[in-house]
Amino acid sequence: MAYRAVLFDLDGTLIDSERHNLVAWRAACAHHGFDLSDAFYHSLIGLSKVKADECLQEEFGPGCDVVALRETRREIFYHAWDNGSPVPWKPGLDRLLPWLQERGVGRAVATSSSHPEAFAKLTRAGLVEHFSVVVCGDEVPAGKPEPDIFLEAARRLDVHPSLCLVVEDSPWGVLAARRAGMEVVYIPDLLGPEGVEARVLASLAELPMLFGGQICQPDGRRSP
Known about the structure:
The chain is of the alpha/beta class. It folds into two domains: 5-16 and 88-211, HAD superfamily/HAD-like (Rossmann fold, 3-Layer(aba) Sandwich); 18-82. It is built from eight helices and six strands; from the N terminus they run E-H-H-H-H-H-E-H-E-H-E-H-E-E. The chain is globular. The two termini are 20 Å apart.
């Protein structure tokens, strides 16, 4: 398949942020008197902010101020990032980005995060200059698992959805990509591959295989 563009989720796909985010969410919930389980956090991964907020309100009840909870999480998360706990790129991304650029493949970020949140992460991670298009959850009518984010990214890149390849780490994102009429691959992060209807890759380093290319090895070599 001659894909003309790759659309990447952000958290857990481009950057290894979900583990840091879980720690921040757990601390924020504890600060506000709530207990956050791994299972509940996992159920939120990939959801739009609106849907996630609905789940938070339902889980913690009317006494939960979701706005305040999110603000506390944000302060904890970025304080840690800026003070000794940086969020690294996912394995293989450093080799994949130039590989795609050399071949003229379009690149976009399609994330459920809000515009301020997405650009705070992309800027800190040093990724802003690598993507000509960034579509955020607050820029489309409906977030994942609806297809709007991916369709908007394809529109901005001027690439037909059928020629786009989506890279995701959440089942909600996979569903959104399929609803957009796009091919999608799944690279497990906090969530395993069980029940996910997508081709599963071990890391971003394997993505060139889908272009007829070669796997980027950890030492920079490419396998035959």
